[in-house]
Amino acid sequence: MNSQITNHLLLFFCISLVLYSCQESSTNSELPYEGPPKDRIITVERAQEMYDSYSERRVPIIQKYEDSVVSDSQKFTPTRYAEYDLETIKQYIAYIEHEANQANVDINTLRFYLSNYPNGEKFPNGDVVKYPRRNSFFVVPTMEYEGKNVGFSIEEVDGKYTAVPINKNETKIEKDNQNQKQDEPEGTVNEAGFFTSNTATVQGGGTSLILNESHIMPPPGKDDFGNDN
């Protein structure tokens, strides 16, 4: 009798362990560690060299221009870096992967666009400009579309999540040059303009996947490569 009880307890323990392991593997979405990305990590020395090159070749030009267009007694200090906390990056990756899955499209790359905040207190839609005149960047996920790697957003078309290329104008020009008149492509990929005011994405009817609003330096502080703001 004792042996049967022991065997039953062992069997129950093994089943519980297997079920727990399966649950852990299904809820853990992180990729297994496979070492650093191949040919993507640079040395600290190379980073310092590239940083110094920007300091010599770009910073003085930006300072000179900004000081010339704004009559301000305070000398302009160009942005040297922007940062996100790790949880924000993880949340962003999870977000764009979820949206891409909903639209049945694969994310090819993350494209980093250099940008600049306007010299004003608010954007045209009323949002506050957090860093007037400051250099920044924003991140756009890309997908395969007509043989090209293009940035995209998400729209609901006929009740269906649809991946929408950001740049409509480039595709339109190519089609005009070819003198071809084609219907809208079927499936989960349609065209839409990024900077065109009559699109659903610009008006807020779509879902943007563009990451911005990082923490920009300066404000004053000393960075990792010796720049004292």
Report on the structure:
- By secondary structure, the chain is an alpha+beta fold.
- The chain folds into three domains: 1-28; 40-78, no CATH class; 81-223, no CATH class.
- Helix content is 36%, strand content 17%.
- It contains six helices and six strands.
- The chain has helices at 2-27, 44-57, 59-69, 86-102, 168-177, 200-203; strands at residues 81-83, 110-116, 135-145, 148-157, 160-165, 215-217.
- A four-stranded antiparallel β-sheet has the order 2-3-4-5, with helices on one face. The protein has a two-stranded antiparallel sheet with strand order 1-6.
- The longest helix has 26 residues, at 2-27.
- The chain starts with a helix and ends in a 12-residue tail after the last strand.
- The model is unreliable at 16-22, 179-188 and 191-204 (pLDDT under 50).
- Residues 171-184 have a biased composition (Basic and acidic residues).
- Residues 171-191 are annotated as: Disordered.
